[in-house]
Amino acid sequence: MPREHSRGQRVSDLIQRELSLIIQKEMRDPRVGMVTINEVKVSRDLSYANVYVTFMRSEDDTVMQSLDALNHAGGYLRSQLSLVLTTRITPKLRFYYDETVVGGREISDLIDAAIKNDEQSNS
């Protein structure tokens, strides 16, 4: 019998989907740019939501500026989110840079280099 998603997981998925639309269509801050929301983790009592994001431009200074802009707009994003959520409490949003994409790219590059070295040594 398949296990059903918990309420927290369903709320996380809804927040992720709706925040993507709100940021894409309603945020006018040029510091934010292209944002991908990778994951949302909601606390058990739904009071906080940790939002993990990545950006198209991944230089350190632009990442920090973009995160600052998102965290500064957290109140606005929360108010827009409250119009969609049917929960009694709308979680406070905290944005974090998700480094797993960068780490995955580095691991992939290392694997490609190892394969290339193996092919050269076998030739």
Mean pLDDT: 86
Assembly state of the chains shown = single chain
Q: Number of DSSP helices? A: 4
Order of secondary-structure elements: HEEHHEH
- State the strand order across the main sheet: 1-2-3
Architecture, according to CATH?
2-Layer Sandwich
The beta-strand count equals: 3
Residues in helices, as a percent range: 40-55%
How much is the radius of gyration in Å?
A: 19 Å
CATH topology: GMP Synthetase, Chain A, domain 3
Count of individual domains: 1
Question: Class by helix and strand content?
Answer: alpha+beta
Describe the fold and architecture.
With about 120 residues, the chain is an alpha+beta fold. The chain has one domain (about 5-120): 2-Layer Sandwich (GMP Synthetase, Chain A, domain 3). It contains four helices and three strands, in the order αββααβα. It has helices at about 5-25, 60-70, 75-80, 100-120, and strands at about 35-40, 50-55, 90-95. It has a three-stranded mixed sheet, covered by helices on one side. The chain is elongated, with a radius of gyration of 19 Å. The relative contact order is 0.15. The model has no long low-confidence stretch (mean pLDDT about 85).
Summary of the model, kept short:
This protein has 123 residues and is α+β, with helices and mostly antiparallel strands. 53% of the residues lie in helices and 18% in strands. It has one domain (7-122): K homology (KH) domain (GMP Synthetase, Chain A, domain 3), CATH 3.30.300.
